Amino acid sequence: MAKSIKDHLQDIFDDLGAGDQRKFKSKLCDRKTEPRIRRAAIEKVEDSIDLAGLMVTTFTESGAVPVTIEILQAIGCNEQAEELITITGKSATHVSPTAPKVSLPATGPSAPSTEHFIDKNRTKLISRVHNVDCILDELLQMKIITEEDNETIQAEKTSQKKMRNLLMGPIKSAGTKGKDALYSALKEIEPCLMEDLESH
To answer: What whole-number distance in Å separates Cα of residue 112 and Cα of residue 114?
Structure first.
């Protein structure tokens, strides 16, 4: 069954973690454009499910995405903003001239051309890689992930959540070495997918 906008928002909010979720809710409170959300309503939000529900009921399915992207950009969560743009095909309601362009790396001097394949194709890898268990076995053997990482990721119910967990956790921590190892594991286990991604 295809995911709803609410499901996509929930996934993004799961990615944020407690600290960034708090920043998101604070920005949402400060938003001056109508419709506005009352602080009391935001204070009742306990988790990602509540937050996604609040966004959709307040702004409707079509309006919730641009507002979410706008706030994600404002709090510096450009990876999540970019992922949401890719998944939904929507963009922010308005982007101030000072806001970083979402398609570029948010920090550092690296030009888009020097962006690592894994970073550049992050959202496509999350949505299209299905043999995650085999990839985890490879990375475990290469000592890129630990047994504990493996168990935590295996516990996720969908391949999308497993890939998101892998990319946001161990691979992010391992830096370029981790990304290189994941790249070679993907080449071996998902050759057709990699061929398709590399041809674009």
So the answer is: 5
